[in-house]
Amino acid sequence: MTSIEALVSLNLLPKIGPVRVRRLLECFGEPAAILGASKDQLMRVDGIGEETAGILHRWQDHADPIKELTEAKERGISVITQDDADYPAPLREAYDPPLLLYVWGKLEERDKHAIGVVGSRRATAYGRNATKKFSFQLASAGFTIISGLARGIDTSAHEAAVAAGGRTVAVIGSGLAQLYPPENLGLAERIADGHGAVVSEFPLHTAPDKQTFPMRNRIVAAWSRAVLVVECPAWSGSLITANLASDYGKPVFAVPGPIDTPSSMGCHQLIRDGATLVFDGSQLLDELSDLPFANKSLSEKSAGDAELPEEEAKVLAVVGRDEMTVDRIIDACGLPAPVVTATLMKLEMRRLVRCLPGFRYSLR
């Protein structure tokens, strides 16, 4: 059995996890040796009780690594471990780094310069627009935007990074064969097709549940250079990500909102507790100015240019002073829907159009 097959097997087992595997590796040295150990040998390891030792000893009842790796390959998904060069360097420093990562797309060295952008699934128009602004600016400046592919703020963050022609990584709380939420499959395909990667530590067919999302959040916190919380209520899981980032010594930024809006209470709580209040991407760039390739000037990407690229000019010519739905704009300009939505975002960042509630657009 190869090392990757053994690690995949360990990752498929219930009630094991990366912390216990690390203890086992300290004792047995190699992943395959863990699976070949007797029950008595396994129980001598700190934290390995009779139940866990029984699962490990009978691992073949729970895991088929060849089947898992074959399906991953057929789906165009790579499986990387901590020994691989593609494994994100910041994750290796975490207390409980994932045993392995399933990667749909491509990770690059520059993805270690990632900004986590998180917030509420029930985002308001204010939250979505703020997320688009920050994510577009930061992606244009050279940062990889990392988020969770969830509805709301996460979706807006990934879409803006793609629209900026930058990179984004979506860390999901399910297996890649059970992508959640399903309506973001198209967005996930665009990310994987040259804009970054969709990543999971879970076996391919793992369904999302209340445990997988906090586990996903720890990866976002550990991977990111800093975490930006755009909009969330006081009970949001985004606060878990922010607190984990703070525990890792990463800076936390928060966007303020209306004081009487419950969806802003989480950000206000973070600011009260020491997070840095921000209202423009340039403020994050000032705080993280050591990034060698970052474009410190955001004006080129956020202001209108005298000469627009062909697609942007075509979409802009369609948008009028009166509000128009995205569907009407798509019909009028004759471009594919993903191209139009990405182009509208670019035009919004150039301050040539405005996004109104209900995904309607008009000229500024």
Description:
With 364 residues, the chain is α/β, with parallel strands linked by helices. The chain folds into 3 domains: 1-66, DNA polymerase, domain 1 (Orthogonal Bundle), CATH 1.10.150; 109-167 and 209-300, Rossmann fold, CATH 3.40.50.450; 303-363, Arc Repressor Mutant, subunit A (Orthogonal Bundle), CATH 1.10.10.10. Helices cover 45% and strands 13% of the residues. It is built from 18 helices and 12 strands. The strands form 2 sheets. The chain has a 9-stranded mixed β-sheet with strand order 1-2-6-5-4-3-7-8-9, sandwiched between helices. Strands 10-12-11 form a 3-stranded antiparallel β-sheet. The longest helix is centred in the middle third of the chain and has 16 residues, at 125-140. It starts with a helix and ends with a strand.
